[in-house]
Every structure is written in structure tokens, then in C-alpha cells.
Design goal:
about 280 residues, Rossmann fold, 2 domains, 3-stranded antiparallel sheet, 7 helices, binds flavin-adenine dinucleotide
Length: about 280
Amino acid sequence: MLKLIVCIKQVPMVSELPWDSRTGTLKREMAEGMMNPACKHALEAALRIKREYGGHITAMTMGPPMAAEVLYEALTLGADRGVLLTDKQMAGADTMITSFTIARAIEKECPEFDLVICGSQTADSETAQVGPQLAEELNIPCAAYIESLECKDKCLRMTRLSDDFLETLEMDLPGLVTITTRQFRPRYATLSGLEEAFQFSGITTLNAADLGLSPEQIGMKASPTRILDVFSSTAEKKNHVMTGAVKKILEEVFEKFGDKIGSAMEKDLKTHEHSD
Ligand SMILES: Cc1cc2nc3c(=O)[nH]c(=O)nc-3n(C[C@H](O)[C@H](O)[C@H](O)COP(=O)(O)OP(=O)(O)OC[C@H]3O[C@@H](n4cnc5c(N)ncnc54)[C@H](O)[C@@H]3O)c2cc1C
């Protein structure tokens, strides 16, 4: 039986994204939460592994107390246990400290795990760093952006799309994978699943002291990342009007935009050769 851990982040509903302009973080307590889309696919991957090879799934999340909602959702869909990491001192953690904290919780709660499954990225911060950093913290191999999985003798065979190539990878377990939203279409919750999840008392809540972590090791205090500014990007178009003889206009076009045209064509237009 494979011991699986699925890391799930609760993200705010896309329609409600209030920012704290002072700290540059989301005011998540003001927005309704939902399971991050890629985490839904990660959970589905775990559920299929469990069905195919047998397994036990621990769903783990770090966030404010309301993040327990995504654990109930995971239990409804078929996870066996939920672990909520919550503490005011954990707030404001960047990806490095998030990975550090989750790694310590995994070592404490599921030290004998076979596979950690994360989403490839989140819908709110979208750094895609937590999966690989968590593997680094746990000192295990990592394969990111996975789209199919098979397991044989504690060895995973996986595929992923990389540029125009379909790569096949193998990894010995224990290991960590991150899952994209292209495959592993999430299943719907059933009424019987809901009933089981809410009768089930399988959510363990841990704070910093439970993990043996001091305030200096966690949260914003320990996080080296600083958000300097948050803004919405805008796309602008500009018209250039060129007049005169065609030869002169072409020379001007290549002088002004030669680099951009060349990189779009993957050619060095100065030498008329491929840049690589
Ligand atoms: C009290 C408290 C308040 C918090 N407030 C915020 C906040 O306002 N804004 C914010 O963005 N984050 C908040 N966090 C969570 C944490 O800081 C972020 O999860 C972290 O920075 C992740 O970055 P990312 O979204 O770029 O993840 P990515 O690297 O894009 O995530 C990739 C994958 O890593 C896993 N993962 C990422 N984060 C978590 C998590 N927290 N728990 C479990 N798995 C995870 C998921 O599988 C996810 O699909 C809070 C945490 C606590 C304890």
C-alpha cells in the first residue's frame, strides 16, 4: 500500500481578490476560499493511484483556520486523513518557509511516506516553487508538470509535455511530483462522500509549537521574500508612421525593430543565420 500525501492550498475565489496594499498580500479572510485548481488535479492523481495500487491519502494544507474547508472537500472526494497547519505565526510565509513548514509537518505526521503530490502552481500566487522546494527540504527527487503516472515496485513511470516533446521519466520512491491541470480531470463530490467526510474526525490540526518550530523559523519573520509592489499590468499599442522611399523605410524598420523581428523568427537578421 502506497502512503500518499497531497499538498493542497486554499485560494480565494477568483471573483473576490481584495489586496492589502500595505503588505502586498491577499486579504484572504475577506474572500471565500476554494481548492486551488491544480491541487484538485493532484488529489485526483492520488485517488487514481489509490484505486489502482492501493494506498492511504493524507491531505495537508497550511493556511488560516478556514483552510480546513479544502481538507473536508478532499475527505469527501476520497482522502483518508486531513492535516491542517495553522498558526498566526505561520502567516505571511513565502514559498521557501511554506515548504520548510510543510516538510517539518510531513516528517512529524507521515515520516514513512512514499509519494508527495502537489499541484504545479496556485491560481493566486502562481510561483510554482513550493513543490520543488518541498522536495529539496525532504531531500527526495522531484518531477514537475507530470501528466500521467504508473507505479511498479516503488518506481514511478511518468510522462510530461515539454515544449513539443512528450518526455517519459522514471523515479524511485520516495519522491515528489507536481501535477498540471491538463490531465487527471477531478471527480465530483458525492452525497455519500460528503456524509462520510463530516462524520469523520480525521483532521489533525497542528500549530508551530506542535511542530517544534520557534517564531523565528516561520511566517513572515523568517521569509526572505519582500513584496515591493503589486499592480495590474496593462498592454499598450503604439503606431509608428514611416514615410519616404521603400528602401529607407525598410532600413528604418530593421534598425528599430530588427532585434524583435529576429527573435520572433529565431534568426540573427544581421548575419541571416540561425541564432543557435
Ligand atoms: C495563517 C496563514 C495565512 C496565509 N496567508 C496567505 C496569503 O495571504 N496569501 C498567500 O498566497 N498565501 C498565504 N498563506 C500560505 C503560504 O504563504 C503560501 O501557501 C505560499 O507562499 C505558497 O506560494 P504559491 O501560492 O506561489 O505556491 P505554488 O508554489 O504556486 O504552489 C504549488 C503547489 O504547492 C502546494 N502548496 C502551496 N502552498 C501550499 C499551502 N499553503 N499548503 C499546502 N500546499 C501548498 C500546492 O500543492 C500547490 O498546488 C498563509 C499561510 C498561513 C499559515
